[in-house]
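Following up on my earlier message about MV4. Here are the inputs again, as you asked, copied directly from the submission form:
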Amino acid sequence: MLQKVLVANRGEIALRIIRACRELDIKTVAIYSTADKDSLHVRCADEAICIGPPPSNRSYLDIPNILSAAVITGVDAIHPGYGYLSERPEFAEICESHGITFIGPTSAQIEQLGDKAQAKATMRAAGVPVVPGSDGAVESQEELLKLVNEIGYPVIIKASAGGGGKGMRVARNETQLLKSYTQARTEAGSVFGDDQVYVEKLIERPRHIEVQLLGDHHGNVVHFGERECSLQRRHQKMIEESPSPAVSDALRQKMGETAVLGAKAVKYQNAGTIEFLLDEDGQFYFMEMNTRIQVEHPVTEMVYGIDLVKEQLRIAAGAELGYEQVDIIPYCHAIECRLNAEYPEKGFLPSPGMISKLHIPGGHGVRWDSHVYQGYTISPYYDSMFGKLICWGSDREEALDRMSSALSEIIVEGIRTNVGFQRLLINHPIFRQGDVNTNFVEELLSKE
Ligand code: MV4
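Thanks, got it. Here's what our run produced:
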């Protein structure tokens, strides 16, 4: 097993990883910026090293500083968490070349799946359904017009180096198409340093459904069902649940087997997620593969009774999964609300500051993953998410009722939060019916 792990992250996920290490008797090293010196991940780790000033590019994204911390403390592995360096192939590569285990897939896998056009081609070749569109990047206007003539409008243009919704444009006619194409390439070039774009048919009002995967170093890959992630605003997820109210047992099996097929095609190792779009006819299509542990992993943990972070550590140490697909059974329904320090009435403006009073709900079927405490100051430098509330129940209704009750119980003073907005969503009749798509939150906000 691993002896000592450096956690190359902050906030709740750093704490989540430290807790998993402790249970496995693995020593931990926290890294922190000067803005995070009072954060719980610093207090809970066995050792902590300051790696720079508050701006992320001078601390949590500073590879030389983080590697120095790893070498000084003599760790044998680094867990990148999510965001930050988690999907940078060059970071995984430099760990590999220094004999430090990167807790995740190989740098080659991160690179292969990080280019979204290439990932799509790989999945298509493996037999995973993809949205009709270009084979890889579209090099010229002529090529673009020829292709769109075949597939028809509306279409969506995406940056190959993008992902998570960054650098996408919709076109519903030829005028929009040519304008969007030029804009998309210019923008992709300046934002990602890569101006390649690809085109596909637009799926209207899709659901975002993702399948959780684990692969070990021995060729075994299994899935842990799906998460419904359609409730999001500006590509930031707000609520995730498992199972999805739109997925039948038969569809789950089909999506799961398809995701495993895709992961096996790249010999995927460690935790990963395949994102699908599910259209209104029940067809699903590969979108992206995320090569990291995700924010919303706890809902899958509650439903399947597994600790995904511990599994990541075991897998990285070379252990075999030790179970098969037939052993993986859903036990309950789980839902997660992301709680943010933000002001919903002011366009979700960030609301950093000191938490002067805090009461966290508890009880049966309630989990709270967070790095904050009463008296903690939320920094303006980082993401506004200050905690994740996860509730589960024997069925969807029980999980949602429990979430509603927990959201009523929570007390957070000193900052503005989205708690009230989350309660509104949880009790919204359309959400209760399970009848949502990726436009739901924005449409709801535009009606107010
Ligand atoms: C799409 C789409 C419709 N049609 N592709 C956005 C994030 C990225 N993973 C893929 N995204 C989309 N791709 C086609 N062909 C709509 C979206 C999309 C979306 C997807 C998931 C969750 C929220 C979304 C919000 C807007 C657009």
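One observation from looking it over: The chain has three domains: 4-103, 132-201, 207-446. Hope that helps, and feel free to reply on this thread.
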